[in-house]
User: Fold these one by one.
Assistant:
Number 1:
Amino acid sequence: MDDEVLDAGSQKDAIPFTAKLTAFHRMAETERKNPLFKDHYAKMLIGDMTKYSEEHRYSISRDGYTIARTYYIDEYLLKPWAKFHDESQIVLLGAGLDARAYRFRPLEQNSHIIFELDFPVTIQYKTKILKDEIPLCNLVRIPTDISKHQWVSQLFNNGFSKDIPSFWIMEGLLYYVPQDASIFLLKTISDLSTHSELFADVCVPPIAGLKFGPFTRHFKWGIEKEDIHGFFQHAGWNVTCAYAEEFDQGRDVGQKGMIFVHGHKSEQNNTSVSDLVRSDREYDLSRQQLQARAIILLKKSPKEIEYVLSQYRKNPEDGIEEYHCFIKEIYRNIKQFTTLFRDISDIARISPRILADPFLKREQISNWTKEELDSHIYGFLIAILQFLYCTANNLDGSEYANSSLHDLSTRNESDKLTMLSSIISFINSELK
């Protein structure tokens, strides 16, 4: 993979410059007043970049995308993965100066091992800098070139097992690898995977054609968003994808064209009866995948609901339109989430509104009072947050009845707006 390099003492210690620049961005985020994450190891790993910082202020300041990407992987993907797997392997292909093995606290839960694969010079440099630090989980570094197939045997020789669920992370990798080689890489890790997931980020063709700055000047290829599903499925992965700006956390992630891809291993289906019956393990993974999606929505929804409420206060007609847009999008997922519960009565114990029609018809509300309209809108927004909370935290109806959120909700039953505001505050504090 072509890249700029930055000397780390001597030419033989030269490591990819983009790895150092990405770590510099993580260091800068850590030093902010309210950082999205803290990586205290980044400062150790970047070395002296004073001169570059002075000469390339534009590149230094353009950190929104790398920060949003790191936060997305940590909070939306790896946190639920670490929580729901008793044992797992996390494989960082092109690990660069990533320090998750030391800083990402959810790795202390259960039993996880991280495999870091990168060029020998990067692995040697990183091992030397962090030699006195203690990782939070088992850590194996493998000096290799992932453009050569020998990395597979090296991975197995260092303890990798096909029988253990694996999460493959290709953070800032695929668009540097030629398209044919990317397909081969994806097929390879599919062959190595059982009940596994992946993260990769890709870009649309115009971004790949920019050839500007320390990052895009080395991009090899791009792909249109509507083609991503078929591309990854051909390589053995079922994926969902979203533009980075949908998870930007208020940061400037640049032009609309960088895409986050989250995939699950595609299983080949035969027509035999035994293959049509899902094992308990497969059911658990289906549940885990839906819960991971619920966590994503639980993080996004409070902010979106607050926007709906602000529009509704300013102008009820505009607010109703925003409410409908929000409902239309979220109920696509809620329909899937209902499959995780035993029966309708279990869902109703959380909120019977989830089973009702959330949409407002003009003829329906023409004779409603403002109080009735408020009750409908606030009530459904409350129900959505309650339901997402239970799905994300694997709570059934009876468990929800004994939860802090239920207690909070019952204390404000007479004032739905107060209840909704309290629930939003509760969820935001829980997710910090």
Number 2:
Amino acid sequence: MIGQYAKTDVVKAYPTTSIREVARLMSQRGVGLVVLVDPKDPNRIVGVVSERDVVRAVAYDVALDAAVDTIATKTVITLEHDEPAARAAEVFRRYGIRHVVVTKDERLYGVLSIRDLIREEAILREVAEYYEWTFEPGMSA
């Protein structure tokens, strides 16, 4: 179940937070994704901002004091905390993303990164079984 691997100490911001401040949060907390939440309900997801979004904003001269909502992804891909790791691997591959928001009863639970998955041998075994691959510890791609 992906919930046991998701980081529950989620870095959150409001849609009105500046792009600069979100970039600062990412740097200080060492994360690649910030979850935007409703100011009235900090467990209701309204968007996400990834490192890629911030880099694009810089590349296209978006004002860094603008609200992060202007560069956020508002259609957020989520998975429930009790879904299998193979489902998360499938989502990462299908959408070309590195993070997925994990929910519990449709409320913010945590964030799972592709890095979280590849650190765990048990997850690699589960994904391998799902895709009918053979996994051996120490094997490389």
Number 3:
Amino acid sequence: MLKLNYEVLEKSGYDGYVLKKAPVKMLQFGEGNFLRAFVDYFFDMSNEKAGWNGKVALVQPIAQGLSDMINEQEGLYTLYLRGSEKGEKVDRKRVISVVDKCYNPYKDWETVKEIAKSDELEYVSSNTTEAGIVYDAASEPGQVPPVSFPAKLAVLLHERFLAGKKGLVILSCELIDNNGKELQKIVLRHTDEWGWGEDFKAWINNECVFCSTLVDRIVPGRIRDEQEVKQLEEANGYQDSLLDVGEVFGVWYIEGPDWLADKLPFKKAGVNVHVVPDVTPYKKRKVRILNGAHTGFVLGAYLSGQNIVRDCMHNDTIRGFMNKMLFEEVIPVLPLDKKDCEEFASAVTDRFNNPFVNHELMSISLNSTSKWKARNMPSFLEYIDKYNKLPEALVMSLAAYIAFYSSNIKERTEDGLICVRPAGNEYKVQDDAWVLDFYYENKDIDDAVLVKKVLSNEKMWDRDLTEIEGLYDTVLADLKKIRTEGAEAAYKSIQ
């Protein structure tokens, strides 16, 4: 079977949108599954829906990458967006044609520099992982290419400045706080160390826009079932070594000035990308609602006999518990439009109900102590401050956390705590060593003492939670109900 390229695609009978020729308007550092299913997808949609008429030149961040494979397919690849929308199964296919070529900077650095000086270039995007936005003292401007991504970017921006060209908009997608601001700081640090002068610094600060962004789409990336891959290739009429898979839900928040919303093609294209003055509240929304929902219900759900997230969404009690937590306790304390948060929370149920993803509860359970503290405790404390009463579902989730970590503990292994589920099977709790040691050392004590020790453990929570009026008694009662009646019954008791 022939490999995907423009000629093969035309002969296959594909009748979707394709743009073969257009100027390169974006330079992208990263060629992996996420960027191709997210950033490149949104720009590809903008070509079709908004007439953006642009291509993306990819730069592989490391010496070994996908450039040969991408160029062999002339930048084309098939993207499947799969999931659930309003309870209905969705499986959408789109051939992405926004990519022009991919460059290996360890071979093509001079070509990349020429692209950076192009009149048509407007944007730089990146996802070089959390380790990508770091200062590296070993990076030098004369290296081919410089070692770190920020150093590479500094050199390319300097080349553009010297050529007298306009500034660029930098869209950083790495999963760190203030990703754009942190990238700008490192670029400026290199500028100072390399003695490139105040004029260039002023150009960086005044002519370029470094945007911190928040990305949200789960991208499994590839289909592992070889039989399914063969079936798709037969249906498509071509072989695609770059086939990519993402969930149907996707939203991108870009922190920037008001004018950027009109410059970027997304508003005109009608895609789910938003320019906002500050991404912080939207990150808080994602952590509190999406991530907080996971951590809030999965531990009790596992004890009740569930194994994957999707099945939990088909259980009225567990789904009802999650919705009570989100709609009655989390959303009321978020500093965002209530309707917007409720729509986001409603989409969470669809995302968790994805028929294509078997998301195991045990994988979500990893490091639940720090997760509960980061994702659930802020909502828990703010609810108490606002309403002067305990949030029932969040308190129950805390009791379920204790139950999960202390269910018939059998042994402490090198990397976990072996516990026994009410159904009788063993499972491994994995967390920081000191957390596992704490629960193992207290495995034989009475629940009344255990709850007090957990709640008063300031290393866990940065405060003594027993000081919160009524919390100790409520957690103890909830834990007793989980132990005696089961977690599902406990969840149902507060609905």
